[in-house]
Amino acid sequence: MADQPGTVVRPDKNSRQPALTGVVVPLRPHFGTMGVAPAAPQRVSSVTPGHHGGNVDNWRIGAGGRMYYPVQVPGALLSVGDPHVSHGDGEVSGTALEASLNGLLRLTIRRDQPFTEPVLETATELLIHGFGETLDDAMKAAALRTHGILQSYLGLSRADAYSFMSVAADFTVTQVVDQRQGAHGRIDKRCFPRWTGIAA
Fold this sequence. Notes:
This protein is of the alpha+beta class. Helix content is about 15%, strand content about 25%. The chain has a single domain (about 30-190), classed as Endonuclease I-creI.
């Protein structure tokens, strides 16, 4: 059945649709699913994202990106998969340009960064993820976590962090297709020229 996550749908040459004529889709190779094992007493679906990461589906988790996850079980048990060559924020149709990818990953334990949620650092920005049963819940989680990081890591006061979020942070829907909704807050590093970043 095509409407179930993870179900293999065999190609049917009689139902194929032609590619979009005159359209160019830029490639954004990335792994849609990447995370550590959650601290849970039962099996956890790989379809839904959470504090452990998982199916975050942020296309910026690509070459040169640094993802930070809170280690929840001994050994972390990193899992990586769901390779895409492109999809947009929201991934609204439930799929992407799926592909097979090879990746070279470097794992580092950072005891100085006690993140409680997935945080992505790129060369130009910091992205803080939030998840929830609704988009309102996901947005609230992303906003609260972004607010906390602006204080903890960038040195703003509580009031200044709240003000900064309204005038300079961007909040975007990450995905709406993985059972739990995802949103992320984006902090442009140019806003903090004296900050050297998280990466060691």
